[in-house]
Amino acid sequence: MSMQPHSFGLFRSVLQNRSNVSLFLEQASLRSQPLKGKSIPNQTMSVLGRMRERQKALWPRLNHDATPLPSAWNPKDKFNLLELSHNNCKVTYKGQGKGDTDAAAVRANAFIPPECGVYYFEMLVRDKGREGYIGVGVATSNVSLNRLPGWERQSWGYHGDDGHTFASSNTGTVYGPTYTSHDVVGCCINFVDNTCFYTKNGTALAVAFRNMRGKLFPIVGLRTQGEVVEANFGQDPFVFDLEGYMEETKAKALATIKKRTLAESRLFTSAPEKAFTSLIASYLVHHGYTETARAFAQDSNTELQESEESIRSRQHIRELVLGGQIDESIAAVNQLIPGLLASETELHFKLKCRKFIEMVRAGATTSESLMQIMQFGQELQQMSEAEQVGAASLKDLEDAFSLLAYPEPTQSPVAGLLNPAQREPLADELNCTMLQWLNLPPVPALELAVRQSVCVLNELYTQGVGMSGFVSVDDFVPESKASKQ
């Protein structure tokens, strides 16, 4: 059943078929439920769920659906001398281990997205085996898996038998302590400065590698009999204080930004103080803070772009809409700016739709009030046809009409329309339109600057710039609306 509002007869039929509409929606909801396929063992689900929640908490800005983080070793991307178990996190060496040609490695099931800023995983050495020739690190997707990490080009590794690091070479560099059975070794990639360091049993070691580049995957390699390791990609708390390190990295990133002066940023070609006062004044005028705008203009010797009377009138109209007094707001607009609503037909229609919703919200307590709602609905229907409003406005009308399809609109699936908070977007749109008709900017320059900053940060994040993973406009403009758009 589709409630296309093309005739008042159809609108009236909605009132006569409330129960049918409710039944249809209920059945449609049941049909839309996905079919259940093969079930995943509860234990596995709990591990995966726990890992996903921890990863989301550590990297909240990352789109975990579009860019999943490593969560296990990849059974399709390993050398055949290795065996995986425990949700593909445990690695056991099954070869003879007679020489370097018996080395075997496995890559994780996803690369590390640079936009996460900092990435970290840990490896527990369950058994060092015969010699403890174990290596852990990162590598690109084209690195041979018949070699320990670090021995091949585009591969970096820290080896347990001698404590050396290897960077795309079979010649090692003295780095840190050796590691053996029961040790926990962590690998951290910092995309802010493109470095890599390791940890041992929760203690951070020195920087091991610099200028890290490429699409990097976690990797581990084993070489002698009896070697067994198990990775922690976030399914369990890390031994290393990763949260503390990330907070420290974020603080450094913010400090770097805050150290920059206006002169260095080259944002202003003339006196920045004058530009700032203009930004603030226009913001106060836009939002109707009349008294504050006047006081600020006097203190800063700035001229307001709009008269105080006009500012008060706009603010009054906005308050009327926010209070659900739609007829009064329409009358006030016609008095302040004659001809606006006659020209802005879509906006006028939205106001009328909101009036219909407010009438439903007040409740059809008598047959007379119900008749008034129906009569106004008919007027709206005729108005939509006469003014040929757009698809979005027709959808608004359809949603408004659907409120009457339910005996209790406040308990219906479209009850959100009755929420007073739904008035605010309409009040904002009306305010912006009035400003345009007064030859004033519809959006204050200060908000545009914030929005542009958000767009720039999002673009840097998309491009994989590490620092963008730690910086948000909210760090400088708390609870900014722009960051949520």
UniProtKB/TrEMBL annotation:
Residues 51-238 form the B30.2/SPRY domain. Residues 310-367 form the CTLH domain. CDD domains: SPRY_RanBP9_10. It holds the Pfam family CTLH. It comes from the Eukaryota. This is KB07 protein.
